[in-house]
Amino acid sequence: MALDKLDRKILQLLQKDATMPVAEIGRKVGLSTTPCWRRIQKMEEEGVIKRRVAVLDPEKVNAGVTVFVAVKTNEHNDAWLRKFAAVVEDFTEVVEFYRMSGDVDYLLRVVVPSIQAYDVFYKKLISRIALSDVSSSFAMEQIKYTTALPLEFAVVGD
User: Fold this and answer.
1) Architecture of domain 58-138
2) Which intervals hold domain HTH asnC-type (predicted)?
3) What is the mean predicted confidence (pLDDT) over 62-82?
4) What is the pTM for the complete model shown?
5) Is domain 5-46 annotated with CATH 3.20.20.140?
């Protein structure tokens, strides 16, 4: 889907506040409510907008410790990857999961209330799947965090 400048403006607004009324979005981008709503609907249908969510404060929901977990494995086959993905899917503590290039095979971002809670998570993880090496790094401070994607790279039509 080619996005024009109005679509990008709409997306910028929705990334900041998905609860903003369509009429207000339309006013801010120079459209009436109906054409603005149609654009949003089309971007949802095309999968540009995957879902609308609430962003929570980790401290207020007792998930204030962020751990980056680098995983190495000697298993490099589809069956093992499917099993590992299924295991990771079961852990609500894992909020991001990536297959990597370079020295690390997989990277997980895990959120927990404490180092002790991470230890419990770690023991459960290694009891369910064989890993060659697991290295954990605890975030000391979050300096930047956003769920907003940069839109200057979006394909622009018209």
Assistant:
1) 2-Layer Sandwich (3.30)
2) 3-66
3) 96
4) 0.89
5) no
